[in-house]
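Hey all, sorry for the wall of text incoming. These are the two entities for the joint prediction.
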Amino acid sequence: MPSLGADMEAGTFIEWNIAPGQAVKRGDVVCVVETEKGAVDVEIWASGTVARLVAEPGKRIPVGGILALLAAEGEDWQAVAATPAAPAEAPRPSPAPAPAPALVRSSPAARKRAEELGVDVAALAAKKGGAPITLADVEAAAKTAPRASAPAVAGEGAARTGMRQAIAAAMARSKREIPHYYLGCEVDVERAATWLEQFNAGRPIGERVLFAALAFKAIALALRDVPDLNGVFVDGAFRPSAAIHLGVVTSLREGGVINPALHDADKLGVPALMAALRDLLMRVRAGQLRSSDLADATTTVTNLGDLGVETVYGVIYPPQVALIGLGRVVARPIVREQQIVASRMLTVTLSADHRVTDGMTGARFLSKVREHLAQPEAL
Amino acid sequence: MNAPDRAAIRQAVIDAVLTIAPEADFETVVPTKSLREQLDLDSFDYLNVLIALAKRLQVEVPEADYGKVDTLDGLIGYLAERVART
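and here's what came out:
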């Protein structure tokens, strides 16, 4: 059972997409696991041949527990299948058993609609033989069925409570363990915004880039310049990460947030970064996240500009050591070369872990973000 | 093929929005107020709505015209005019 975020202790196994004897390669989606954040497609992290499926649908399995036995390339899978499973399955004691989430694979949109319409998604899933429940399924069921009984709604409530509890646990741990320090600065983004308008003017709508993508790229490059903000704090020590995977705080329409990772953000050109970001956010909306989306962010960015927020000081997601906040781009009168001019401004903030860095490092980072945004053509 | 009429365009807009915000209730949407604000659509959501509409109606809204398509009435009116011209 992979860890799909630092706040995950266990997951409920839903279904297999593979069978014994089948060859798999790293990255293949092999099963579906339900977490507090919804159903997630789990990608296998090694190649080989499936020997034996250990996990059974409906079972709650702790992070690190065995899901299946895999024969390495060249190994006889039937021999591997015959070996007894290691006793690693013993569940770790869980401090407070969370309410069992509904064992249903469905998109967040479908769940939300089901709750509104009083459709029992569990019953629907049983009818569909475990296939994912879509919005259309829910709507169709609502037309044919009378309002369902209370348990379905209770199940939805439990899933939502589960997410609330997971967020509460992660944020409480953050505030308990991480001595945050906070810095913020206003960045003149007139040049970047103008450059982007020209860039977009000549492109079809599907290739247009939003300002957020430009800002994400600038942040990724600034993290490369100031690597002490990119990594995790584990067992009393900071472990910097060479790769820059930006967690993107995404609010779910049905409540709660999820932080899927935008992988190798520093290495993507702006159009590729925009495409990756759009793909990621579409999959969040459709409830089609994969395990690799949730596993390994090295720093997180929260962008509340769309909601009219000008300044956000976020709470760091443990075990990460920094969180960057983006506000709204607003036109303001500023002084440039002794003249008062109108210019578009963006407030960038940093919440960072004082165990790992000091204000000096944070200040250097913000000044690098400013530098990168001043040269949009180089992003 | 005849150009889609206003009702068809309105339906296309509703369909596009519902794929992203399935809970949106168009009975209560005020057509003269910001659609994004009423339905909590972020800039990625709204871009995806416009991309879906571009595919369906073959009308791309240039970035410079975003101000004209902020409300439901504005968006439908803009698309109707552009569809009629093509």
